[in-house]
Design a protein that fits this description.
Layout lengths: L3 E3 L1 H27 L9 H4 L5 H5 L7 E3 L11 E2 L2 E2 L1 H6 L1 H15 L10 H5 L19 H10 L8 H4 L4 H4 L11 H4 L5 H13 L6 H20 L18 H33 L7
Parallel strand pairs: 1-2
Antiparallel strand pairs: 3-4
Helix pairs in contact: 5-13, 11-12, 11-13, 12-13
């Protein structure tokens, strides 16, 4: 494969800019971790997802771009002589095909925006205070009020990785029953968690794609997480998060409006990931 080479000064500048960009999110998380302080909103992308902060911070140019005078990359997964090899890309074809199928299936569906974030409510349905996931923070409506919201709505969660955290009494209340192996049959672009997972898909493609795209997906996921938890049953006012009161008509309208905006913002990122999967699957099977 023909590829272009970035001189050291050029790629170091891009790596520096990437590091500064993600440090705005990483450094507060590391500071909290050192003080054993939990943050139910901003820690999520570092605790739920498997990408470690140091790996998020390292910049990669992606397959097809070589780095001149780059001993820092010697020995890194997929690299040889400052570039990701075609043999490594070829070894990742099962991952690429799976992600391509999931992302295309998600993209093909209209965005559904009638779930109102009830997945977070279903995760605490009929739990005692000590069982609640984020029990450092009170429930806005209390346990009984939270249960009443779940019981008075139709729960419509399409995302397995949210559904699997539902309490046992809540599972049967969900309109859909997604499973681990049928994500492509259910994922749809209006789902907040499908939008956040664009970050997961992006970092799983590291180092084959440029880290600029990974950072774009990370920032989207971080912003979505704020809406996710503002619409949750928790009272996070002390953290500066005003609730989206989805139990009211006004709150539902706010949630749907922001959900649609995130679906629109996520669409071009999903398209870029699809195109990257296609580019990598079509790459010639020979070392760069």
């Amino acid at each position: 494969m023909r590829y272009r080479v970035l001189e050291r000064a050029s790629w170091q500048a891009r790596a520096h800019d990437h590091g500064a960009r993600v440090d705005a999110f990483i450094e507060p998380h590391l500071a909290r971790r050192a003080e054993t302080i939990k943050h139910p909103v901003h820690d999520f992308l570092f605790t739920y997802y498997s990408q470690r902060p140091a790996k998020l911070r390292r910049w990669h140019p992606g397959y097809g771009v070589g780095l001149a005078d780059a001993p820092e990359y010697d020995g890194l997964k997929g690299y040889l002589d400052g570039a990701v090899t075609a043999s490594y890309v070829e070894s990742q074809h099962p991952l690429l095909r799976g992600l391509h199928n999931l992302l295309r299936a998600t993209e093909s569906r209209p965005a559904h925006t009638g779930c109102f974030g009830l997945h977070e409510w279903a995760m605490v349905y009929r739990q005692s205070p000590d069982q609640v996931r984020h029990n450092d923070w009170p429930l806005r409506l209390g346990s009984a009020g939270t249960d009443e919201v779940v019981e008075s709505h139709q729960v419509k969660c399409s995302h397995f990785d949210a559904f699997r955290f539902f309490t046992d009494p809540a599972r049967g209340r969900n309109l859909l029953q997604p499973a681990r192996d049928d994500r492509a049959a259910y994922e749809q672009p209006g789902c907040l968690h499908a939008g956040m997972d664009l970050y997961k898909h992006a970092f799983r493609l590291t180092p084959m794609i440029c880290s600029d795209l990974v950072a774009d997906c990370f920032e989207l996921a971080r912003d979505i997480r704020e809406l996710d938890m503002r619409a949750a049953p928790y009272d996070l006012a002390d953290l500066g998060f005003d609730p989206v009161r989805i139990e009211t008509p006004e709150g539902k309208a706010i949630y749907v409006r922001e959900q649609r905006a995130f679906a629109e913002r996520g669409a071009p990122l999903r398209r870029q990931l699809i195109e990257e999967c296609e580019r990598l699957l079509n790459a010639a099977p020979q070392n760069v």
